[in-house]
Amino acid sequence: MSLSTLRLRVPLIVAPMAGGPSSPQLVAATCESGALGFLGAAYLSPSQIIHQSEDIRRLTEKPFGINLFCPNPAFDPHTFPKEIIQRGKERLEPFLREMGAATPNLDPPFDEDFYRQFDAVLEARPAVLSFVFGALPEDCSRRAREKGILLIGKATCMEEVDKLSQSGGIDAVVLQGVEAGGHRGIFDHKAPDPNIKTHDLLNQCVSSPQYKDLYKIAAGGIMSAEDIRRALESGADAVQMGTAFLACEEAGTSAPYKRALLASEERKTRITRAYSGRLARGLIRPFMDEMEKEEILPFPIQNSLTKPLRAACLKNDTDKYMSLSGLGRRET
Ligand SMILES: Cc1cc2nc3c(=O)[nH]c(=O)nc-3n(C[C@H](O)[C@H](O)[C@H](O)COP(=O)(O)O)c2cc1C
Question: Keyword Cell wall biogenesis/degradation, does the record have it (predicted)?
């Protein structure tokens, strides 16, 4: 099967954006316009996945996708040293106090159970499941295929494309360049960034004969019609855009976040582990430097520790310590 079976009128995917931006309204509006909308479900509970899928279906009859973060079998938060977690919390305390935030949870699990989320996705039965941070476990690929769900993996280098096509297989690949806003999809969370630009990665994949028939989706730094045209002319079958849709009326992006994105033409960004423990590109804030003075806890622990801080920012209507994932006009 291929993504071409979806017969998109517009070769565009509005990126799954976990944490609120990809609201059911944004997903439905995208699909109604002829593109493909995605629910970013990584931080949703199984019942939220079911309910938000029902909300989407109330708004559109068109096919849509759901996105999950792959589990990381190499990392067990249950055996992670408690004193290091405690130290991570102590480092956040001045910021938590300033914002009047709740105390972070210090005990595992620090995120939703992937396999329960996956079961909910099968029940919701979207047209497409996309995933990031690795290959889907093989039994999950098989079960999704049995339900007729198309699979899209995400790669930041050609080695990852190879791994995706060798595992349970994929129907399409998102080729994510270093310009991309949000999390870098790198498989190994400790590895340095392969640092390949969107067009270079696309060109590498297009010129690999074994991937001649693979449906290729370019992502990262695509903001305008001209950018889209260039990617399609270079051999992409479609593009995936995140940042460009963050400030849409339908997006669930919080008010302080939208204001920060729209505040300056320049929008300087950089990549940091400060908010979640995984590399992600976002608007530059002093909090990034502050956190990077010491080793940052791995995902999902850091993500869980900063959660109350981010929630308190929302309550106080400030973006000060929010993770402002997105792309800048000038990358640093
Ligand atoms: C706020 C935000 C949240 C994101 N969340 C996810 C996610 O949950 N899953 C995912 O696969 N990609 C996520 N991404 C990355 C996008 O899939 C895509 O790679 C990226 O947005 C492309 O770069 P652009 O922002 O320059 O368009 C996110 C991006 C942003 C900006």
Answer: no
Percent of the chain's residues with pLDDT above 70: 97
Query: Which residue's structure tokens are 């804030």?
Result: 285
pLDDT bracket for residue 247 (50, 70, 90): very high
Count the domains in the chain.
1
Question: How does pLDDT run across 1-41, given as a tens digit for each residue?
Answer: 678 888 899 999 999 999 999 999 999 999 999 999 999 99
Which atom of ligand 1 is least distant from the CA of 18? 8
Tell me how far the alpha carbon of residue 21 lies from the centroid of ligand 1, in angstroms: 10
250 within 8 A of 274, measured Cβ to Cβ: no
Could you list the residue range(s) of the whole structural domain that residue 327 is in? 3-331
Going from the C-alpha of 198 to that of each of 127, 252, 283, the distances in angstroms are 26, 26, 19
Q: Measured from the CB, is residue 177 less than 6 Å from ligand 1? A: no
What average pLDDT does range 90-95 have in this prediction?
A: 97
CA of 3 to the centre of ligand 1 (A): 19
Q: Find the 92 Cα to ligand 1 centroid distance in Å.
A: 26
Radius of gyration of the chain (CA): 19
